[in-house]
Amino acid sequence: MAQTLRRFGRAARELATASPSRFAILVFSTLILIFTALLSLPMAAADGRPLPFADALFTAVSTICVTGLSTVAMATTWSPFGNAVIYLGVNVGAMGVLTLASILGLVISKRLGLRAKLIAAGDSNPMRAHGGPVNEGQTVRLGEVGQLLATVALSTLVIEAVLAVLLYPAMLASGVHPLTALWESLYYSAMSFTNTGFTPNVGGVAAFADNYFFLTVLMAGVFLGSIGFPVIYTLWKHHFHVRRWSLHAKLTLITTTTLFIAGAAVFLLLEYNNPKTLGSMEAWDTTFQAFFLSAMTRSGGFAVVDVGELHGSSLVVGSMLMFVGGGSASTAGGIKVTTLAVLALAVFSEARGRQSVEAFGRRIPSDVQRVALSVVAWGSTIVAISTITIAQITQADIAEVLFDVISGFGTVGLSTGLTAELPDPAVYVLAATIFMGRVGTVTLAAAVAATSRSQHYSLPVERPIVG
């Protein structure tokens, strides 16, 4: 038995260092199966009856992939044990399985070897996932991986603790019982920082629609979770010395802030006359809720207004924001804000006739641009196939299907109400979409591709006509 375990351990280490992407998919899949089994237990359900397999699997996927979509009523379905399992699952999924594996190895062995650094590097930068050499400068170098891991663990614990402390009195002010508020504040803090969006109470966030302090704390938690651990590490290391910030941190913060403000302005413009959403509110309430909706479409998943009542134009805008998502190596999903920033800079450089793509005195190499383009192409393909499949299965309105599919791919958690009504075949399709969105298109492509090979020759050049 011991020899078998040692062989399994050696095989896992070889897979982790040879192909971190395949190792990540393997561990993610294993965690989903474990949590599916836990959520299928009678003790996990409030009524003591085992949950149907499709619902247990979908909830496990949504938990580990920090998505927030659900086929069941989260507030009434789960027992205290079930809620504890979900709370643990979102924190495990938020850290990233490669990072978590490295942290556990560091705790056990008291040191971080090269193997563990290579494993963790796959989470800090998806471009390392192919297992081959990475020649360009990285956001987090191998020598800094140990400090990044400490930042991941400490920031998760500290930020969630601070959020819970702030949320507790806000919940008391809204009339929540002190004991109930104690565990719900911890639950909400985890769901905001991990960008999951599950709610433990009947009515969800809408029950706190008038408690702007509570909603502001949730937005702060979502923002901190969505910018990514490398950015948190940069801010912790260099504070307000902006010149020392990495290019990744600058692009992430600028693009995130721009999309947050622009999204709020567009929602305000499109929904101010909709009596079912923002149109029935006062001017200040309408403005605040527009910002809240903009923040949550980035990956937060909480909703005060009924998403199903938004205008079709707003659903399109929300889908665009969800598709972009948050920062790389964060608890958010989507194609990532840096992907959008790199492509926007490439388009701008092409329009200006520049030979290279530059930002803040740095040149962005061509391989990064190719990866950004690949991420968009893979993401669009996954969303399109999933939308067509689910639309064919359900014959539902295509706008609602597209919104929920992008919400799943971007691990956002907002829904028009369609997800809760999906038949089992569509549930499995959406679960696969969530999994691919969380694992990441770069990691997924690297796992499918063969091991990197050096090419010692180049073919003749011929330019096809494009555009």
From TrEMBL:
It is a multi-pass membrane protein. The chain crosses the membrane at residues 23-44, 84-108, 148-170, 212-236, 248-270, 368-389, 426-450. Its main location: membrane. It is found in: Cell membrane. It comes from the Bacteria. Keywords: Cell membrane, Ion transport, Membrane, Transmembrane, Transmembrane helix, Transport. InterPro entries: Cat_transpt (IPR003445). The keyword Secreted does not apply. The keyword Ion transport applies. This is TrkH family potassium uptake protein.
